[in-house]
Amino acid sequence: MDYRLSKHNIISQIKNSDEYFIINPLSRNADILDAETAGAIMDGSPPNKEELIEKGYLSIPEEEEKLFRSGYLDFLDSRDEDEVQIFYVPTYTCNFNCTYCYQEGYENEKPSDYKPVIKAFFEYVDSEFAGRRKYITVFGGEPLLPDPTTRAKIELIIEEANKRGLSLAFVTNGYSLESYIPMLKTASVRELQITIDGPADIHNQRRPLHSGKGTFSEVAAGVDAALEAGLPVNLRAVMDKENMPHLPALAELAVERGWTASKLFKTQLGRNYELHYCQENSNKLYDRLSMYEDLYDLIKKHPVVMEFHRPAYSISRFLFDNGEMPEPLYDSCPGCKTEWAFDYSGQIFSCTATVGKPGESLGTFYPEKTLKEDAAAAWQDRDVTSIPECRNCELRLACGGGCASAAKNRNGEINSPDCRPVAGLMSLGLSLYFKEN
Ligand code: SF4
Ligand code: SF4
After folding, report:
1. Of 34, 55, 195, 245, which alpha carbon lies 20 to 30 A from 68's?
2. Measured between alpha carbons, how far apart are the two ends of the chain, in Å?
3. Which pTM was predicted?
4. Quick one: average pLDDT of 341-355?
């Protein structure tokens, strides 16, 4: 039999260790190797062939191709069953003046009658997503502004969602959240995503009101009130080199306020990056790997960060928590597949990265239904089997081809790669979870 090294092996040294790891996202195996064995495998003269064959690290190319194709069909089938996240933007207006806002350059809207648009949005959801599991995420701008018109819009969205038994998530800056709690309690709230970028002084520098006034105490009070009311909170911190050193202080604060002890509380770290509008000071921005390198060093010095947030480090955390590899990732971009975005002007977009961006509209749901079928199909067909660069990349089933919008911004077209530094992330993550822990 003509066994060869699998095209899906990912081998690299574990950070701060003499040992190496090998993972194979197709055969779903992962092992730690000594340097000698890793070297022999990389040189193409592997020892213990039987074990390597059993784990799929050595395989017959035609057999492996069959496994790849049948896995792909399973992936497509299971995606058809996945829940769809439908974003609705009732406004692009915001009361914050965040230093890094990517929507800053978007035009502000003209006042319009929101009622027929919201009704048309729900009718579109009824007809176009019939039979799919789904929920709606209300996004902005800032969707929970304190004025009466915005409150009336949110009330109507809740009413229409409740009629249909749909749950709602809200992506909010949190400033007026406390005053919205009684209204939100009438909805089925899946999650409130609220951003806090650090302890008070750091958050206030980065996320002030337009007047320059700080916002930390109101936002933190909103988190307290939401948890108190039994509403799940997903706290997000948008990271760059300026606030990374302050993450331990934010973690301590979250522990002290009792947030991390709540089952309703979870966190995510976003990366501040140039999405559509150039940022003034782009040398404070991280690339994907350097952010997680700095986070690794920070966690080693301040373990409290892990009480606040356990980073995924590609599939390292999954492997640690579940004791097995995840399913192969043939696609990591949900746009136009399990994610869509709609805005108050009646337009349809692929996802949150493109919503409201001039030139990215894929159609309209109001005043009439239109869809640019070819443009939507370009999103739907993009995965690691369609992107030429991904077809022979050993990382493909751990990377999934990345974000289509980021790929288009960088390469000018959707069907192009947005590479994830999978090996580097795994090197850090396996060290953190399996060696340091
Ligand atoms: S384009 Fe990027 S932001 Fe939009 S759904 Fe895909 S991965 Fe997400
Ligand atoms: S996006 Fe880049 S790293 Fe990811 S699978 Fe494609 S070529 Fe490989």
Report:
1. 34
2. 41
3. 0.95
4. 97
Cα–Cα dist 265/193, whole Å: 10
In the chain, CATH 3.20.20.70 sits at: 84-311
Q: Show the tokens assigned to 378.
A: 């370009």
Q: What is the pLDDT of residue 275?
A: 54
Question: Does residue 134 sit in helix, strand or coil?
Answer: strand
Whole-number Å distance between alpha carbons of 27 and 7: 11
Structure tokens at 262: 């709540």
- Category of 198 on φ-ψ map: left (φ > 0), alpha (ψ -120 to 50) or beta: left
Q: What is the pLDDT of residues 360-376, one digit of tens each?
A: 999 999 999 999 999 99
The reply to whether ligand 2 has any atom less than 6 angstroms from the CB of 223 is no
pLDDT interval class at 104 (50, 70, 90): low
pLDDT in tens, 251-266: 999 999 999 999 999 9
Record the tokens describing residue 30, joined without a space: 């992962």
DSSP E strand boundaries for 244-301: 265-271
The third-level CATH classification (topology) of the domain covering 84-311 is TIM Barrel (3.20.20)
- Ligand nearest to the Cα of 397, by number: 2
Please give the C-alpha separations between residue 388 and each of 27, 335, 377, 419, in angstroms, as whole numbers: 23, 19, 17, 13
pLDDT band at 42 (very low <50, low <70, confident <90, very high): very high
DSSP codes of every residue in 329-394: -S----BTTTEEEEETTSEEESSTTTTT-TT---EESSSS-EE-HHHHHHHHT-STTTSGGGTT-T
**Which of 72, 396, 403 has most ligand 2 atoms within 8 Å of its beta carbon, as the pocket-test mutant?**
396
The Cα 136–Cα 83 span in angstroms is: 11
Angle between helices 148-163 and 177-184 (to 10 degrees): 30
Q: How many residues are recorded in the chain?
A: 437
| CB 143 near ligand 2, within 6 Å | no
Q: Which atom of ligand 1 is nearest to the CA of 408?
A: 1
